Amino acid sequence: MHAPEFSLLLPVYAGDDADALRLAFSSSVDQQTLRPAEAVIVQDGPVSDTLERELARLEAESPIPVRLVRLPDNRGLTEALNAGLDAARYPVVARMDADDVSVPERFEKQWALLSQGYDLVGTGMVEFEIDTEQPISERVPPTGAARIRDHARTHNPFNHPTMMYRVAALDVVGRYQPFGKMEDYWLGVRLIASGARVENIAEPLVKYRVGAGAFARRGGWQEAKTEWALQREMLRIGFISRGQYARNVVVKGAYRLMPASLKRVLFRKFVGSGLPGDRA
After folding, report:
1. Which pTM does this prediction carry?
2. In terms of Cα–Cα distance, which of 253, 244, 187, 192 is closest to 226?
3. DSSP category for residue 276
4. How far apart are CA 36 and CA 160, in angstroms?
5. Which domain holds residue 96?
6. Exposure string (b/e) for 72-98, b if CB count within 10 Å is 16 or more?
7. Are 151 and 184 in a shared domain?
8. pLDDT category, 4, cuts 50, 70, 90?
9. Are strands 198-209 and 101-102 parallel, antiparallel or unpaired?
10. Average pLDDT score over residue span 2-15
11. Rounded Cα–Cα distance for residues 269 and 211 (Å)
């Protein structure tokens, strides 16, 4: 199949592992039935010598062009992704984290929908801890514009590491904006509110690595404050009603302040989409 005109966007920072990065890149390039036209790797600040060597190897040996963007200091995921968008040569970008794994048909299936005029296409995910072939849970996102919009009023409707989107659609809403660990949720809400055509593929096309302490990092007062700030912004732009705002502040604030063990149980039982990542 003719190579499509889309860029793979993969941020890397000091907390990433060289072996995991190698697997993430290989699964998203070498093993894909439809390869990206280029890979944009954003090095978000200084990394270990081992990661430096792996980045150099990928740049030298990749079957597709690799553009390595080096940020002098760790600026966080929002700035790293925006830097990658600036560097991308193609109008469509596919997200990938440095410790996840793409299923071989991922981009082929997402590109089929982008080709129909969609602005953003996400997918389902399975979670794993160590062995990619032993998933521990699945995140199934809502599908269809109406269900996605309705879901977005209470939960993030997109699994961020699975997104493929048109850069022009992100330009309309101001791209990624700083919002704690919820920059992806805020981006999705703004895209929906702007009238962008969005869709999800329920099938899990990404394997998402869950590290120790993931649920603890999604809680605490700082995360609760970020959650409440997000709800205020959603109310301000008219995306939710006052009643929905009040409900979300209470329910989602309580969730953020729960013990990690209880949060894990409730998340996997009731939430059908991804929470923001755990990157620095």
Report:
1. 0.88
2. 253
3. P
4. 18
5. 6-212
6. eebbbbbbbbbbbbebbebebbbbbbb
7. yes
8. confident
9. antiparallel
10. 89
11. 19
